Amino acid sequence: MPQTHPATDQIVPTAQAPVPTKLTLEERMAFINTAMNVRLDEAKVAYEVNTAHIPIKPVDLADVITGPVDTGPAPLPQLYPTPVAALLQRAHHRLLTGGWCSGALVDEDGARCMLGAIRIEAHGDSGLEDDAATVLLDAIRRKFGEDVDSVPSFNDAHGTGRVPIRMVDQAAGLADARGL
Questions:
Q1: Would residue 74 count as lying in a domain?
Q2: Lowest-pLDDT range, 4-8, 37-41, 71-75, 145-149?
């Protein structure tokens, strides 16, 4: 009920407490977000004030950001002591560094298939090339069964070089174990 003041005969309304309303989750999150932004802005200003007196030496980004150094192809690891194993290891390295292909001994980019890598690394020694291809086929058949007809058919059956390259490496280990 309004109060009256006899001296002025005016009616002064009394203040009523606001009725609390229930906020939705989205409204509460908006309020919290606003409060956090205010606090972060205050912290930013405080940081700038507190560090304004510290002298800073400019940084040349060329000294900080560096790219990879082109060192050329990876070095060939220690070769196996036996000739066939060493040939297969060189062929494996050639496939890793020069690329793998299927459907041809060498493609237009210079990538080679399994047999193409063996042939180039044999340096014209057909006996060594044949021995390496035989060990490679044996390693493939040990892993994938006797159904594999030849090294080229195995090579061409794959869409990527991951498995063929791994098989050349395993064949090098097999040749070394056999003393070839």
A1: no
A2: 4-8
Query: Comparing C-alpha atoms, which of 88, 97, 99 is closest to residue 140?
Result: 88
Residue 166 domain flag: yes
Q: Contact, 2 vs 11, CB < 8 A?
A: yes
Does residue 153 fall inside a structural domain?
A: yes
Neighbouring C-alpha atoms within 13 Å toward the C-beta of 71: 5
Instruction: Report yes or no on 96 lying in a domain.
Output: yes
CB 132 within 8 A of CB 169: no
In terms of Cα–Cα distance, which of 71, 89, 109, 62 is closest to 167?
89
Range of the domain at 168: 83-178
Prediction pTM value: 0.58
Q: Which of 36-40, 104-108, 123-127, 152-156 is modeled with the greatest confidence? A: 36-40
Number of compact structural domains in the chain = 1
- What pLDDT is stored for residue 69 in this prediction? 62
Residues 34/57, Cβ–Cβ less than 8 Å: no
- Token pair belonging to 137: 């086929």
Please give the C-alpha separations between residue 38 and each of 29, 31, 32, 47, 128, in angstroms, as whole numbers.
Answer: 14, 11, 10, 14, 77
Cα–Cα distance between 109 and 86 in angstroms, integer? 25
